[in-house]
Design goal:
mainly alpha; AhpD-like; two-stranded parallel sheet; 2 strands; 66% helix
Length: 271
């Protein structure tokens, strides 16, 4: 039994620490991203073409040549959406590339740190820990230290009392008798603490949440959080483009499952 547990532990940490570093397109050709010896190199376009020439063409022309250049989301927003999707789906293979790209696109180290913290609650602790392993290496390569990251204890943003009172009452009424512990943590930890941490703006925190929910197929939670995102400043055009972006990074079925929900939210919001 002990031997089997040891073997399983070795396998787990082997998988956890093996990932791919960024090397697509210009980032690879210019040498702008340095690959650590502890991280496997990502496939070059030639590597992809050796397996699937069609995939290599779609990657270069449709993904980076088209999708990432669409105007309704900034490159910074697209990086936030992509990181949220990768973390939510625990897809660490491409995470080094996209963490570096996010930093290049203006996402601050403190914001990436806070995205990972936020998604520990919305995608699970293990997914966040996997992201920590990858991001720690990228931060190390780029000389990003603790002085650029949010402290564990910070002065929180002000609570919007009326909206929070309504949310808490609805949750208590519907689920207080089912799982009072969940209801209590939702109030105390999520909405009275996590959502008020200032290193990630409310609009961006909502963008992360909506992206993670759609990417993981959790459409039942999308109406509340999409409305909250739009209350926090996400426009309908931007929300629509989030769906378009996620079709490539989370797959068409997850996005088509979310489309009717988004349609209903858009139609019910005041014009």
């Amino acid at each position: 039994m002990i031997g089997r547990l040891v073997s399983q532990s070795i396998l787990f940490f082997s998988i956890l620490f093996i990932s791919m570093a960024p090397s697509y397109g210009e980032a690879q050709q210019t040498g702008g991203i340095q690959v650590s010896k502890t991280i496997q190199a990502a496939p070059t376009p030639e590597d992809i073409g050796a397996v699937s020439p069609a995939l290599e063409q779609y990657t270069q022309h449709r993904l980076f040549g088209d999708l990432w250049k669409r105007p309704d989301l900034s490159p910074r927003d697209r990086s936030i959406v992509t990181l949220a999707a990768l973390i939510a789906r625990n897809q660490t293979v491409q995470m080094p590339f996209y963490v570096n790209l996010a930093l290049d696109n203006g996402v601050k180290p403190a914001e990436i740190s806070e995205i990972i913290t936020h998604l520990a609650f919305y995608s699970g602790w293990s997914n966040a820990m996997s992201a920590v392993v990858i991001t720690k290496e990228v931060f190390h390569q780029r000389g990003i230290g603790a002085d650029q990251l949010p402290k564990s204890s910070v002065e929180l943003l002000p609570l919007i009392e009326a909206a929070e009172k309504q949310r808490a009452a609805n949750v208590e009424q519907n689920f207080g008798g089912v799982a009072p512990g969940v209801v209590q943590y939702t109030t105390d930890v999520l909405f009275h603490d996590l959502w008020l941490r200032p290193a990630l703006a409310p609009r961006d925190r909502s963008l992360v949440t909506v992206s993670a929910l759609i990417a993981s197929g959790q459409v039942a939670q999308v109406p509340y959080h999409l409305n909250r995102a739009m209350d926090n400043g996400l426009t309908q055009r931007q929300a629509s483009e989030v769906l378009t972006h996620l079709a490539f990074y989370a797959g068409w079925p997850n996005v088509f499952s979310a489309l009717p929900v988004a349609k209903e939210v858009f139609e019910k919001r005041p014009k």
